[in-house]
């Protein structure tokens, strides 16, 4: 989600100086009261009116994407905990199961077993 513009932040401060309450500003600009309070607090404490700089952080697993694909290709039913342990041993990459799951999802890698044939018709319903 993109930050609100510097112009919107200036509008909040101008409305505050004009004597409007946080609730009135919220209805006027259709933004949350908590965001308005943060804008006012930032200005009060540091004089800052511009939104914070957003950096595009690189993912931890970018360097390990090829390795992850190979691991899952070799063993499609591998558990996340096994992948995490292998990453630590083979790549000296300390990560969590949650981060590993996010990496696999972002790379479009699934670990589910594939059926080699459709289920038989004699199975109970």
UniProtKB/TrEMBL annotation:
Entry-linked InterPro entries: Homeodomain-like_sf, Transposase_14, WH-like_DNA-bd_sf
Record-given protein name: Transposase
Naturally occurring in which organism (per UniProt): Calycomorphotria hydatis
Pfam families in the record: HTH_Tnp_IS630
Domain called Transposase Synechocystis PCC: residue spans: 4-115
Lineage of origin: Bacteria, Pseudomonadati, Planctomycetota, Planctomycetia, Planctomycetales
